[in-house]
Amino acid sequence: MFKSVYNWIDERLDVTPLWRDVADHEVPEHVNPAHHFSAFVYCFGGLTFFITVIQILSGMFLTMYYVPDIINAYASVDYLQHKVPFGSIVRGMHHWGASLVIVMMFLHTLRVFFTGSYKAPREMNWVVGMLIFFIMLGLGFTGYLLPWDNKAYFATKVGIQIANSVPYIGEYIKIFLQGGEIVGATTLTRFFAIHVFFLPGALLALLAAHFLMIRKQGIAGPL
Amino acid sequence: MAHGNKNEKVVYVGDSRVRKPGGATIPPDYTSFPGRSEAFIPNFLLKEWMVGCVVLVGFLVLTIAHPAPLGYPANPTNSAFIPIPDWYFLFLYQLLKYPWVSGSYVAWGVVGIPGVAFGSLLLAPFLDTGKERRFYRRPIATALMLLSLVSCYYLTKVSWDFYQHELEITGTIPEHTVREEKAREAAAAGKEPPSATKPAEAVELVDADNAEVKSIMEKAGCLTCHATDLKGQAGANIPALRGVGDLLTKEELAEIITNGKDKMPAFGTDLSAEEIGTLADWLAKQKATE
Ligand code: HEM
């Protein structure tokens, strides 16, 4: 039954090569921790992706309760944290995951740096990786405001003040982020949109490019 | 049309072109790297998923043991709150505190140094173009990276230690800790945890425009601690005076004002007994239930 459905689809769309390419690609000895324990450093990219998936899934569940306006934002997070069954676990995963993903990404970057894997022909993948790095920091900054407690509010205020001190364009960055004269209602909706739509969209596009390039080039060879 | 060609690598399904089955899927070629290569699916992925499960379980245990913190609702007029960014921004936050990258040199702090650091990281493959990959044969790149790592660690640590110190000298307990404590106390006493969204401080003031009380309070400086709206400062553990009449009697209030209590200073010498009596009278009237 399953096989005939698959064949029916494959006959029309020829999907076999798509997944066989992923399935059959080799995992060479020098990156396989089963053979050399020190090869665990090559796992950090995969772990970063794993945590990123957790962030996306837990974030999707958070938006089922979260309300991005200054009257209800705090109350909705409070409700989710204390009243919704498993709410504190979902929020906890997103909260701690945000730190963990930075740690993993940091270790991954160091692995790539110290193994010299960013050198030709992988320059473009490194640049894409750094762009991902910046996007992740952006996600961290915008997400911090969303619970709308005092910590969120004052950290964002300081962050925007720092952006404001950039010469020439600081004022514009500030107005763009704040959406007005103060950190207030428009700031929250803006940060929400950036955190939930703009940055994840860019992140997914960059991740796709990252993975395509790895598949095309294969992982860097042994040192 | 050229459809009859025997060498054609496509078959036609209706008017769509699909690659001909058989021979098209390239058999995996594991010769490029010598050694014990294995296929991604299923051999490697299976092991990866086992590791993934262990990581996931550890992670879930962490989230249950340490619930995500949540303080009190944002109050823009709270001037005592000590701002702190997430830990991975601390190095930048600390950098900007040094006089040689702030004030009139702030451009160095916000654009110059981070720009050079992150810019050269972004363009690393074009700056470090040698063929050598081993880090111990690339002394310059390695040294610069290690230097940056040490600086980031140092800045983060200084920033965090300073924050802890600030909390200590101002006697501040972070709001999310205060909340957790209160919830725990309430649970131990078998009560509902206090709601942070409908705080007791939202109680209306009784006889709010009493000029005599106002002048005494201004003179004594009660408002600097208990806030101009008398809602207190949850972050600094200073109670609200709204609704205090529900908690304390006139005599108890006079006693606290005269002799102080914990961090509440004594006013027995600064204020006359009469003034204290006026305050206690007025405070005793502050009841939510009336
Ligand atoms: C969400 C963030 C990221 C994810 C999910 C991710 C994922 C991965 C994965 C799965 C690999 C395969 C090798 C391995 O696992 O170590 C890889 C390789 C690579 N990554 Fe990332 N990465 C991320 C961010 C970055 C960053 C921040 C950089 C550096 C600027 C970077 C640069 C590279 C490079 C150059 C390679 C090729 C290395 C080689 O072939 O040995 N990536 N990435």
TrEMBL record, chain A:
One of its GO terms (cellular component) is plasma membrane. Residues 5-223 form the Cytochrome b/b6 N-terminal region profile domain. InterPro entries: Cyt_b/b6_N (IPR005797), Cytb/b6-like_sf (IPR027387), Di-haem_cyt_TM (IPR016174). Keywords: Cell membrane, Electron transport, Heme, Iron, Membrane, Metal-binding, Transmembrane, Transmembrane helix, Transport. GO terms for molecular function: electron transfer activity; metal ion binding; oxidoreductase activity. The chain crosses the membrane at residues 39-67, 93-114, 126-146, 192-214. SUPFAM superfamilies: Transmembrane di-heme cytochromes (SSF81342). It comes from the Bacteria. It is a multi-pass membrane protein. It is found in: Cell membrane. One of its GO terms (biological process) is respiratory electron transport chain. The main subunits of the menaquinol:cytochrome c complex are a Rieske-type iron-sulfur protein (QcrA), a cytochrome b (QcrB) and a cytochrome c (QcrC). Component of the menaquinol:cytochrome c reductase complex. NCBIfam families: cytb_ExtP, PRK03735.1. This is Menaquinol:cytochrome c reductase cytochrome b subunit. The lineage of its organism: Bacteria, Bacillati, Bacillota, Bacilli, Bacillales.
Automatic annotation (TrEMBL), chain B:
Its main location: membrane. The lineage of its organism: Bacteria, Bacillati, Bacillota, Bacilli, Bacillales. It is a multi-pass membrane protein. It comes from Paenibacillus herberti. The keyword Transcription does not apply. GO terms for molecular function: electron transfer activity; heme binding; metal ion binding; oxidoreductase activity. Residues 208-287 form the Cytochrome c domain. Pfam families: Cytochrom_B_C, Cytochrome_CBB3. Residues 30-158 form the Cytochrome b/b6 C-terminal region profile domain. The chain crosses the membrane at residues 49-68, 105-127. InterPro entries: Cyt_b/b6_C, Cyt_b/b6_C_sf, Cyt_c-like_dom, Cyt_c-like_dom_sf, Cytb/b6-like_sf, Cytochrome_c550/c551-like. GO terms for cellular component: membrane. This is Menaquinol-cytochrome C reductase. Keywords: Electron transport, Heme, Iron, Membrane, Metal-binding, Transmembrane, Transmembrane helix, Transport. It is found in: Membrane.
